[in-house]
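This follows on from our talk about sequence and fold. Can you supply me with one protein entry, sequence and fold together? Could you add the entry underneath, on a fresh line?
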Amino acid sequence: MTRRETTRVRRLFNGFNPIVRGNGNGHHTDRRSPVDGIAGGAERPISSPQEGGRERPRRSTLNPSRPEQFDVIVVGAGPAGSAAALVTARAGLKVLLLERGEYPGSKNVSGAALYGSAILHDLIPNWWEQAPVERYICRRMLSFMSPETSVSLDFRSTTYAEPPYNGFSILRPKFDRWFAAQAEAAGAFLLNAAVVDDVLWDDGRVIGVRVRREAGDICANVVIACDGANSFLAKKAGLQREFHTHEMSLGVKEVIGLDEQTICERFQLTGGEGVAIEYLGAITGEVHGGGFLYTNRDSLSLGVIGQISSFVEHRQRPYELLERFKAHPSVAPLVRGGTLREYSAHIIPEAGWDMLPQLYTDGMLVAGDAAALCFVAGLYFEGINYAIQSGLAAGETAIAAHRASDFSVQTLARYTEHLRQRQVLTDFERYRHTPGFINSARLQNLYPAVIAHGAERLFRVDGRGKQKLLPIAWETLRHFELKPFQVLQDLYRAGRSFGW
């Protein structure tokens, strides 16, 4: 945007009094969670009722005053929104990036793993040299846990410790703020504390958004909704149905301060190396979910994630699971002596392919968590990389539409082609059966204990002589009352989910 245009937009938003205010750091300190008070309730949609699978869009017409006109409006300055704003601004389009929080990242859960560093490297060469990253992740672990023991798969690679790296641990408030600044530097106009109340329609086409202020109508040829997991705009446009509680998970997280030397010693790291650990089994009890731990420069990000329906069914509080997780004998030594810096909660779309919305309509695209593009598939727990990829794909689609001066649903439908070229929809379709398998009762609540018990029998020395693997496996299955046909059934489901 030119200086004259920027001045005009700033004058347009003078006097805007945002409804949402934070405490300055953007993090929750209240230990109550979004599911407190609903334990024991029946499964229900996450928000309002729906008609015909999706909410009927409420048509808001344009305010008769002269609204500001943009080529692209991006709602939400997370990784998806900033990626979309960056690529469209670089193409010379007039771009407005709206953020509900006090600043980009202020409303996000802090502490995360960003995989797919090469994706950002193509967009911003050697981005890690200027971005506020914590550690490069060169080691990943998957731990199966019983109440007393754990069995871990430990992977470490020296190639992941070389540019462009495979992934980084990051603190979202710092990273999101930096990424949005890259979009600003490319020419996008960033407006913080902007609450979007509705989409605007004209003759069946989305033509802009309504911001909560006087003369709050802002128009654009394309609106890109990147407004989070329970996307208000996608539902307003009739693109997304209401989610059910078995499709959404709640993550609760703490960031625990530890000095850098202690982290390196405890996790066997040197320099900027980092580790990401995922946990499955006893730490969540009967709740379907798991835990995670990421090493930052001078802190640890750790938390638990569980299906909302499972929290309700078993009358569990998320923070109670988090305390149980930290007290487990395999985890307690890793966090010992740390000081709590942050506590936060976040809703995560986890049903994969089956919960993807319609991704486009006349004048509008949906990306990131708003499009349910969170890839939770047992071996994989990724979201930021898919958010960035979808934001770039949405931006590329908007650029092509402007070049053709055609913003119809037929033109914007090419968004799915861009998503497939970037392997986003391809990955979700390929692993479409995985979420159901991962959240099955036996995999969540039984097999981690089976693995831990079998390993304990294998390595125990008690003077009774050594057993071979098959008798140990058979005794373990009998101990947990597992039938052979159940194991074969689950092996088939595992193969369909991960093998072919």
About this structure: The longest strand covers residues 133-145. The chain has two domains: 3-434, 435-499. The first helix runs from residue 3 to 12.
